[in-house]
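Example 3.2
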Amino acid sequence: MHSHLLLLVVFSALTSLVFAVLQRDTPREQGRLWLLLFAGFLGAALVLGWVMYPFPGGPA
């Protein structure tokens, strides 16, 4: 895979799924928590990526 965004989405989805299953008992609660965690992971990553965009990266 060459797309960092695709890897971010896959990682966020799977991590959120594991956390939701471990933290909540009913499927409805698990689904709601999964959605909140998934949106939080994606939102935080995209905002941090946008904030860090102007800074140079890589070796000097």
